[in-house]
Amino acid sequence: QVLDGAGLDVDFHLLSPKGETLVFDERKSDGVHTVETEEGDYMFCFDNTFSTISEKVIFFELILDNMGEDGQDQEDWKKYVTGTDLLDMKLEDILESINSVKARLSKSVQIQTLLRAFEARDRNIQESNFDRVNFWSMVNLGVMVVVSAVQVYMLKSLFEDKRKSRT
To answer: SS3 string of 51-101?
Structure first.
């Protein structure tokens, strides 16, 4: 997401380890992309060459799901549990609930981070508008002072006695 800069747009490229283009966005202000990955190094690039005069502030987040999770590691705890099948069932239910809560918490953290990025972009726009309004208000005030001074001078000149008096 582009937070600040002229036009609030940027080009985005995502290349696979084989060099294939997976995502190519031109002049977008924000975007969410989901990609099935494979082993290797990916390359992503934010390109601002079309707008060399203005700089951009970019927010991006890279979310990697299912990293380091092996099915065997999660099942290892079962060999240490002794007892009835009812106990195994309860432990499986608890583990499932905990994993569900963990996934939901992680998703809510991601959404809050995204909302903070939206807030930062909107704040930058508001501050820019505030500066613009202040500048043009000062210009307007200056014009009003000049116009009032000219009007006072013109009114005074109307009431001056231009006749030469002889003494």
So the answer is: HCCCCCEECCCCCCCCCCCCHHHHHHHHHHCCCCHHHHHHHHHHHHHHHHH
pLDDT in tens, 25-53: 888 877 777 888 888 888 888 888 887 77
Instruction: Output the pTM of the full model.
Output: 0.43
Q: Which residues contact 24 (CB under 8 A, 6 or more apart)?
A: 11, 12, 13, 14
> Do 59 and 120 meet the contact criterion of CB atoms below 8 Å apart?
yes
The whole-angstrom separation of Cα 154 and Cα 87 is: 99
Alpha helices per DSSP H over 26-84: 71-75
Which residues lie across from 14 on neighbouring strands? 23, 44
Q: Are 57 and 124 in contact (CB under 8 A)?
A: yes
d(CA 75, CA 30): 40
